[in-house]
Amino acid sequence: MLKESWFDSHCHLDMPAFDAVRAARWSAAQARGVAGALIPGLEPAQWLRAQACAASLGTGSYWSIGLHPWWIAKQPTTLTPQLLAEALSAHYSSAGCVAIGECGLDGAIELPLAQQVPWLESQLAFAQDKALPVILHQHRAHNQLLEVLNRYPGVIGVVHGFSGSLAMAEEYIRRGLLLGIGGVVTYPRASKTRATVQALPAESFLLETDAPSMPVYGRQGADNRPEYLGEIAQAVAQLRGESLAQLATRMRANGQRLFGI
User: Fold this and answer.
1) Residues 42, 65: contact at Cβ < 8 Å?
2) How many whole angstroms separate alpha carbon 164 and alpha carbon 169?
């Protein structure tokens, strides 16, 4: 059990994988110092589930609305990027909604990047108009994502699941983005990510589990859990030569600054 208080900045506790064990998983997380979580939006049909999940976790938990690139092809043909913006408009002011996303670009799925871009731009434009942070997914599309972000210089947010080099990190930081650091940092062989985390400015990152994905070291092959956020925190603190108390204080400040919570 950790005595510090932690915020899981990216946790999919609303997913069906947690249906039978959600309360137990969250109780275990709280017992280990996780005081709150952000449940990301994946597609319009899921937003109300994310809202209900965040509400069930209690004070200190929040949700977001967005269309993840993996879910674009699953949308009805009647949905367009313009109509997505209208859907966002109907939900963004709901209680506990603090961001737009998870949205972004993925170069490893069948849908071409050129077809993903209009959906991302719709969400970035909305976030810029409403002064909301974004939660960004990026996989094998770093340069393409930077090109799109350059067209929306006022947008701030977090690049979820970051595992890149320091040079890549600096590209995002210069654009006002934070980096979501998750289970990858716990793997001894993840030398690039670990070196990056060592060198990051203290105000430039958040901690996340991405549960049930991105398992921490030693738990490969099993669903990830929000209770393992402390293991990520311990790895980060050790790499940076900080105490857990120092890290927890900075992570709370970074989350509050980005999400206004």
Assistant:
1) no
2) 7
Quick one: average pLDDT of 207-215?
A: 97
Q: What are residue 128's phi and psi, to 5 degrees? A: -65, -40
Contact 161, 210 (CB under 8 A): yes
Per-residue model confidence as pLDDT tens digits over 49-80:
999 999 999 999 999 999 999 999 999 999 99
| Matching residue, tokens 């030693």 | 218
**pLDDT band at residue 2 under the 50/70/90 scheme:** low
The residues, any chain, with a CB within 8 Å of residue 65's CB and separated by 6 or more, are: 41, 44, 47, 50, 87, 88, 91, 92, 97, 100, 101
Structural domains in the chain plus CATH codes: 6-259 (3.20.20.140)
Residue 159, classified by CB atoms within 10 Å of its CB into exposed (0-12), middle (13-18) or buried (19+), is buried
Give the global pTM: 0.97
